[in-house]
Structures
1.
Amino acid sequence: MREALDGTDGFISAQALHSALHAGGSPIGLATVYRALGDLAASGDADSLQSPEGESLYRACSTGHHHHLICRSCGLTVEIGADEVEEWAGRQAAEHGFTRAAHVVDVFGFCAECSARLGG
């Protein structure tokens, strides 16, 4: 399944990946795709996020903690570091007595190309 994710651009839903695999001749079932993507996300081999519409999306992940800028139009995804976010999240957790805090930050907007096409 990791190889299938490596072949996609940006994030993809389990259903879209399943359709692409079937178009390529794979007999894999949709439930198996969901299970495999969930396992990849749990092990850190895939990024997982929810689209603004609430759909779970996946993509092959680079290593290390990171965040994303995601284009709402074309799906272009850029991995970013965010030291300020890391510091803020740690402070907020500590101020409220939380330990072992984790966070996910995904910023949705329009990439430069889509912004130009959409008129700003």
2.
Amino acid sequence: MDAKETLSGLPWWVKWIAIPVIALVVFGGLITAVIGFIVGLLFKVLVFAALVGGVIFLVRRFTSASSSSRGDW
């Protein structure tokens, strides 16, 4: 007996409500931890990209300003 045969005899509310609720209760902490980790990682990546972009912007701005005022580059 496979999973399709087992689930075919059950009412619709067991397949679509009871089983997902049980899965959320059992694995809810794990799901929350994984989602929290992914969101935290994405936030850190965005902060990293913003900081690197800011450093590149500042270096180019000050490098171009100093090279235009010196004239010897």
3.
Amino acid sequence: MFTLYKSYCPVVSPFDPCKPILEKIYSTPPNLYIGFQPPNLPQFTPLEALKAGTLWKPFYDPYFNPFEKTKGGLPR
């Protein structure tokens, strides 16, 4: 299944002084999955592009921390 979020399980030592994090999650950018830039991609307006950090809509990645709470109190 395709997802922009990946995870891995780091090595946990019995001698770690802190409670271990058993699963770490990270985000991968969408441009990793597009081999080349096709012509005529949809574009943001110049003001939207400044806010989004990219001109092309398929390359936009609104990063959300998987542990953030939404307004309803549930994780995303």
4.
Amino acid sequence: MIGYLDLLLRLTIWFLLTADLSPANIIIGVCIALILPRNRTVTAVLKDWLHAIWEIIVAIPTAYIEAVEIILRPHTAEDTVMERVKPNRTPGLIFLDIFLITFTPKTIVLKYHEDGRYEVHRVRRRKLKQGGE
């Protein structure tokens, strides 16, 4: 079952890149999705995929809300933080995690470190100093 989800993810990416649903492109996409190497040592759990899909659904309105916040109240502070990869993630789920972080306007993944961390750049509102300044 999970192999089908990885295949579906690869096909979705292929169709988004090519923007062509012709029969020839579908055949090429299926062939490429099957030929690409897989990581057979780590298997994803269906619960992880469902959780990732839910996070995608939640990220869409969040992205719109953050975009409006940035327009109405400019964010002048920024920082870079290291975030840990969730345990037991397959490469497909790691890709979705990076996509979700980058999808929202306030954050972007700068680098994925092989030791299981993301380098994330964030913009935020500058906090006002205490004492009325």
